[in-house]
Structure formats: structure tokens, C-alpha cells
């Protein structure tokens, strides 16, 4: 059975743990202070008969290994061979969140962008164009309001597609040993 | 779906001199199979040019001199363009890339509106109002955990010592096992020990309720921000405060939360300070002792203890920063303030339940285990005429073991074997201090008020009625949080067996200054090692050397602080 490993990465406090709980049905303590998830958490999800392991990485602003959390996140993304990284972003603070995305992009790992908290962004009068990001970066972009359960279905459908797709089609070059 | 590619098709390009070197460097590194097997080459080259020391060491180890020379050569060539600031240039270019990307993907409103959150923050994180607001909120939390929870504490206590004990005794007499050591184990060991701690569930429940609201509303992150200014002036890092706030709940996650600190020394320093923040397990001890010695101002005493914890932590932090941990470049404090949100009931309930059930699990394992050990030691006679499970507690093995410690605590006013024993078991977990105290001060016979035989129906009715009246009392106590006292002053009841025994015990060991000794005892409980799990966490995070520094340091500080309270207080009174 082809198991898949999906890592959730993003800045602190963008709703990674909420998404993790929604995906895996686990009840990891969800808090809004940085440093809550200090080690990576693991949960399982079954989609279309495939076992997906979801890894919730500690929230970081960058992948430069300045703190133990950044090191954990970086090591997993670069050396943990995740089949895909789901990069969760706070849509209301898109620019700051995209810095980490740019760094993940540089690792060449397969990735999906999840623009979370779109409800907050909309309330602030921000208009997000996910299709622009998707076309420019060439990767799937999903909009979401995880606390209201919006966008979760779409992410699950995307994960199902990943589970069906042969690994070689997604992964260009090999990563770490 | 036509195409399905997850690997990004867009590559972020740096300025051409950097790109040239990236290509050269990744090619040079590509000759080393060990590196190729481990890292994506372009990524590795980027990190190396940016000056990542961890990866540079890795490259030197795996790639040898060829790789290091290639890196040095690339850096040298780039120095003509960027001088010493190559890393800054690269980060800057990345920001520019991100800025362009965001500009295309985002339409901002013409006039950015000041959100509700911003408006609230103008007040809450205000330079002058921030700290008073923080203290005010803390005060509300302690009123909630003392006054509002108190009626429920009494209710659970009544249920456990009344109907539940009664049921166990009847059950034992039906099976013909009454009067023996089994009854003693169940009543004096399990009910007195574990039950004594379970009584405080309402206290913890209300604390967890308050913490959940503070956290979910977004205030918790602000408290760190508010305190940063103060902390900074004291020479500490603002980020240190957040693990400390977490420490109000439990020291263990707080110790792990120090990982957010980038500087290793700041991290260890914070790890040493976190245990001084009064964790929720200490609260039952405060409530028990404060209710006996300071019934009219228990809330104030408890608030004072929490404040003492913070002050000791900050004071010690300043001291250590200027001595052992000095001369470090300060790293800037950046914290994201989440927007204020109305906490959802579901989330709050979830957190309360999760933490309370963790506590219950604790009760069934560590507290039950320790209570049984204490019971066993209490049941074993080492002198006198008693036999197993029928001995005077003074002549038990527990009294003998704890007695060894009494000289240490004598100058602090609580040098009795009872309190020494409670503090000894308190190393395991702080709730155990309560269970041990109830066990050792449990005067046989005094507690058993002869009640006429009741049926289970009557018992259940009494339990239900008790709960309703407790709820009523708690509601009446709510306005007292802001200083309005609705509840009529309760007639001070004659001290029951336990209260009387504890008061007598402290009076005897302190030469008549029972209340002062009790305060010193609470200060000691506040400051010494929180529990074994926290010790294990400290060891895992900082190594065993720092773990010992932490254990011994806390003991010395706790001892000195309790000494100051008791001897100083005696001098003035």
C-alpha cells in the first residue's frame, strides 16, 4: 500500500493545527500563541483506501535554522521526503506569509498553497486572487476558512488526487537520503 | 484535471551575479554523491551563500576541501558586488519577489480601515494601561478560581466524605470486610488522598476556563507584548514571558515552549525561570491552606502568591542575566498579535475538558500511587504499641521518614513531620501535597459524624440538592469579582477535624505563629520544584546539568524566601 506523507507548514498562528485536527480528527490543543506546536505532530487520514500521514510542523516565519522550531520544520521539509507540503497561509497577511512559501519553493518539494482565514481577509476589504498565485507558481492554490470548515472539502479532493497520482509524476528530483 | 504538477514551475531568480555563483556552486557540490543524496543542490547552494553555518559544517564534513573551496571562491567573487552584505541582499531579493507576487495576487482596499482589533489594542497594549489591565485580568481570574469555585469544592467534599465514604463502608460491611486494613486503605488512603485532590476539580475547572478565554480571545499573546517593555528594561527577552504565562497552566508545556527563543542562553534562562510561575497544580494547596488560615482574604493571598512567583522569576532573571548569562547580543522580539476573536463555547469547553481530564488521569495514576505509598508508610508502625493499619500516625514509618527532614524546615516555622512529609511527596506532583496533608492530619474518629442510616435515594437527593445550592452560591459570588458582595457573611463554622488539626499543627511547629508559618509554607510550595514531570522536561530540553541547577536553585530560593517570610514576619509582629 502506497503510504503518503503530507506536511503542514506555515507561519505561527495561521490555523495549521485547526486544519490538522479537521483532517485527522485528532484533538491537538489549538492555541493562538506562537510556540504551541514545538515538535511535529503526526496524524492519520484515510482517503480512497490510501493511508495518508499528516505531519503538523511547528509554525515558523522562515526556514533559516535560527531556532529549534525552524530546524525541525526545515529538516522535515528537506530531509523528511514528504510527498507534498501543504503550506498554510494567513490570507489577511499574505505578503508576510509568502516569505516562507518562497523558501519552501526553493527546496523544490511538491507543494500546495492553502490561503486560510479568507473570511478575515474579506472582512478587511482585501480581495485575493488565488488563480494568479496558482498560474504564476504552477501549483494548486486553495482558499479556506478552516474554522468554518470552508475549503476543507476541496483540500481533501486534492489530497485524493495526489493519492491516486503516481509519485514520479509529482516528484521531479529526489531529495534527501 | 488536465495537468497535475505539484512541483513549482516558477523559480525565484536572484540578481545575475548571484545566479551565476549559484549555478557554479551547485555544479561543484554536485560532484559529491553524499551531498547529492541528501540535499537539493540549488537549495543547498542558496543556504551556503546566505551563510548557514550548520549546512556549511555539513558540506565541509561530506564534501571535503573541494566543496569548501568552491564555496569560498564563490563568496569571494560576490564580495566585490555586495561586500559583507550578501545575506542581506539575498533576503532582500526574496522579499522583493514576495512583494511582487503579493501585489499581483491581492487587491487592497483604497483606505485601510482601522479594525476593531486595532482599536482595542490601542488601549490594551497601551504604554501605561497595559500592565494595570494585565494585573486586573489576573485578579479576576483568581477571584473566579477562589470565590466562585468554592461552593462546588464544598459540595464535592460533602459528597465524598458523606455518601461515598458511607457507601464504601456499607459495601464492606455487606461483604464482611469492614473494620480491617482494607477499609483503612480505601477510606484513609484512597478517599482521603485522591478524594482530597478531586475536591479541587472546580478550582482547576474555573482556572482552565479563564485561561481558555484569555487564550482564545487573543489576549495571551498581548500579555507577552505588554510585558516585553518591562522585561526588556530588566534585561530579559520579551519572548521569555510567553512560556511564563503558559506556566500558569502547567510548567511542562511552558518548558517546551521555550523553544521559541532563538538564543540558547535566553532559552535556558527562561527554562530556569518558568517553574516559578505558579502552575495550576499548586492552586489546590493554596486554596486548602488559605481557606484555613486566611478565610476572609483567600483571594488576596493567592493573588499575592502568583505575583510573588512573577517577581521572583523576574528578579532572578535580572540577576542571572547580569552574571551567568550576560554579554549576549539581544535578539529582537517579534510577535504576531492574532486578531481578537470571540472565543467559541465549543473550543473553550474542549480545552477545559482536555486539561481537566489530563488532571483526572493524573489523579488515577500518580496521585493514587503516591497516596497508597503514603498510606502504607502511615500504616506501618515503627515504634509504640500499634499494629499494621492500626497505629498512631506519629509512630508510623512515614512520620519517621519525614522526621528526618524536619530540622531543615524548622527555621521556616513548619518543621513538623506532617508538613515535611507533604513537601517530600510534593516532589512527585504538587496536588500530592494536598492529598498527603489530608492523610496525615486525618484524625481518626473526628471526621466521622454519626449520621443515621440513609438510603441511596436520600443520598442521591442530598447530592443533587447540594449541587443546586452550590450553583446558587457560586452565582451569588460572581459579583464579588468586581467588589460587590451579595452573599451574606457566613457564620464562621467551628473548625472541623481537618481544619483544626492543620491549624494546631502549624501553631505547634511555629511557636504560636501558625498563620505566618502557613504563609511561609505556601511561599515554599510556590517556589520549589513543581513536579517530577517538569524535572524530566527540563532534563530533556536543557540537559541534566541544568536540571540539577534548576532543582537545587529552586530549593534554595524557596527556603530563603520562606525564611524571610517567617522570620521577617515574626520580627514585625
TrEMBL record, chain A:
It holds the Pfam family FeoB_N. One of its GO terms (molecular function) is ferrous iron transmembrane transporter activity. InterPro entries: FeoB_GTPase, G_FEOB_dom, GTP-bd, P-loop_NTPase, Small_GTP-bd. The keyword Transport applies. Keywords: Cell inner membrane, Cell membrane, GTP-binding, Ion transport, Iron, Iron transport, Membrane, Nucleotide-binding, Transmembrane, Transmembrane helix, Transport. PANTHER family: FE(2+) TRANSPORTER FEOB, FERROUS IRON TRANSPORT PROTEIN B. This is Fe(2+) transporter FeoB.
UniProtKB/TrEMBL annotation, chain B:
GO terms for cellular component: plasma membrane. Residues 14-106 form the FeoB cytosolic helical domain. It comes from the Bacteria. Keywords: Cell membrane, GTP-binding, Ion transport, Iron, Iron transport, Membrane, Nucleotide-binding, Transmembrane, Transmembrane helix, Transport. It comes from Candidatus Chloroploca asiatica. This is Ferrous iron transport protein B. It is found in: Cell inner membrane; Cell membrane. Belongs to the TRAFAC class TrmE-Era-EngA-EngB-Septin-like GTPase superfamily. FeoB GTPase (TC 9.A.8) family. Residues 197-292, 365-544 form the Nucleoside transporter/FeoB GTPase Gate domain. Residues 302-355 form the Ferrous iron transport protein B C-terminal domain. The lineage of its organism: Bacteria, Bacillati, Chloroflexota, Chloroflexia, Chloroflexales. GO terms for molecular function: ferrous iron transmembrane transporter activity; GTP binding. The chain crosses the membrane at residues 126-144, 189-214, 234-256, 268-294, 300-320, 359-378, 515-538, 545-566. It is a multi-pass membrane protein. Probable transporter of a GTP-driven Fe(2+) uptake system. InterPro entries: Fe2_transport_prot-B, Fe2_transport_prot_B_C, FeoB_Cyto, FeoB_GTPase, Gate_dom.
